[in-house]
């Protein structure tokens, strides 16, 4: 089961450009990842420009082989705690476009953004002040992102 989210940035007219993200949408997942790896508007725009996302940060690709295991049958993790795979890559977003499909970024009002039009459970907004804000989409209530 996945926790879906929408990730976007605010424009000067207060509209939002955003994309769908399929996995790990909780504030402790995607919220923390956004705060750690996407701290300037250029990086946020680059992330969104790639279109819909399966996972915000993973070593996997759509053709990655099996996960690597140690001699005790446990996963082998990199220094950041990501599971390593045969034929993997450095941690980065896994875009749907890499498998030949997916959605383009969506331009909407703030109200539409936090409504969760694809059954997203959380919405993350990079606002005009350069801050990440998180919202529950069923209520548009702002929630905190853990540090």
SS field, number of helical segments: 3
- Radius of gyration, in angstroms, nearest whole number: 16 Å
Strand-pairing-aware structural class:
alpha+beta
Residue-averaged pLDDT, rounded? 93
The H/E string reads: EEHHEEEHEEE
Helix fraction bin? 10-25%
What does this structure look like?
This protein has about 150 residues and is an alpha+beta fold. It has a domain of about 100 residues. Helices cover about 20% and strands about 25% of the residues. It has a 6-stranded mixed β-sheet. It has a two-stranded antiparallel ribbon with strand order 3-4. Strand 7 and strand 8 form a beta hairpin.
Supply database-style keywords.
single chain; 147 residues; alpha+beta; 6-stranded mixed sheet; two-stranded antiparallel ribbon; globular
Compact description:
The chain is α+β, with helices and mostly antiparallel strands. It has helices at residues 27-37, 41-49, 110-115; strands at residues 5-10, 16-21, 53-58, 92-95, 106-108, 122-126, 132-136, 141-143. The chain contains three helices and eight strands, in the order E-E-H-H-E-E-E-H-E-E-E.
Write the layout of secondary structure elements.
Elements: E1 5-10, E2 16-21, H1 27-37, H2 41-49, E3 53-58, E4 92-95, E5 106-108, H3 110-115, E6 122-126, E7 132-136, E8 141-143
Parallel strand pairs: 1-6
Antiparallel strand pairs: 1-2, 2-5, 3-4, 6-7, 7-8
